Amino acid sequence: MADLVFKNNPKFQCQGIPDSVKMNQLQSLIHDALIGTDNVQNCAIIRRKEAVLKASSVGFNLYEEQIQMFIEAFKNTPQIREEGMYYEDKQYECVRADSSSIYLKHEQQGIVLVKTGTLVIVSTYSESMKPSICVEATEKLGDYFRQKDK
Predict the structure, then answer these.
(1) What would the DSSP string read from start to end of 32-67?
(2) Integer Cα distance of 129 and 34 in angstroms
(3) How far, in Å, are 11, 31, 49, 54, 105 from residue 26 at the CA level?
(4) Which terminus of the chain has a lower count of CB atoms within 10 Å, N or C?
(5) d(CA 80, CA 94)
(6) Are the CB atoms for 41 and 124 separated by under 8 Å?
(7) CB 101: neighbour CB atoms within 10 A?
(8) Distance from C-alpha of 1 to C-alpha of 104, rounded to nearest angstrom
C-alpha cells in the first residue's frame, strides 16, 4: 500500500477555512472550555481590532456598545479599578484590573474579561457558580489563544 503524503499534496490542502466553519469551531471551543465547567453562565469571544463578536454562548447577545465597552475597558484600567463598570442595569465593582485581565462583581454575580493579542474573552457567572473556576477557565482559554498568537 502506498504512503499518502498529505503535506505536499494540494488535493489535501485547505485554502482557507470559511468564516462559518471558524465560528462553529469557536462555538465548540467556548462551550467545551467555558460552559462545560458549569461555572460559566455566558461567554463570548470578541475580535478587538474590528470590535466584532466572533462567537458567543447560546442566548448571550452583546450589543455594539457593550462590545466596545469591553474592549475599551483595557485602555483605562485605573478608571475601571476606581469606578467599576455599568452592565445590564447593574454597577459592577472592580476586583482586579490590569493589562490582560479585568474581574468585576455585583453581589454574587460577576464578569471576567481576558485580553489576548487580538481577542477579548468575556465570561459571566451567577450566584450559584464558583467565581474562581470561571476565572481559571477564562484565563486558561486566554493562555491558549496567546500560545496560538491570537
Answers:
(1) HHTGGGT--SEEEEEETTTTEEEEE-TT----HHHH
(2) 12
(3) 26, 8, 18, 8, 26
(4) N
(5) 7
(6) yes
(7) 19
(8) 59
Q: Is the dihedral of CA 27, 28, 32, 38 positive or negative?
A: positive
Q: 66: which 3 cell numbers?
A: 457593550
The Cα 121–Cα 146 span in angstroms is: 12
User: Would you give the DSSP letter of residue 126?
Assistant: -
Q: How many CB atoms lie within 10 A of CB 134?
A: 25
39: its cell numbers: 461555572
Q: Which helix (H) or strand (E) holds 95?
A: strand 90-97
Cell numbers that stand for 5 in this block: 503524503
How far CA 35 is from CA of 57, 64, 131, in Å, comes to 8, 23, 13
Q: Count of CB atoms within 10 A of residue 110's CB?
A: 22
Q: Which cell goes with 26?
A: 469557536
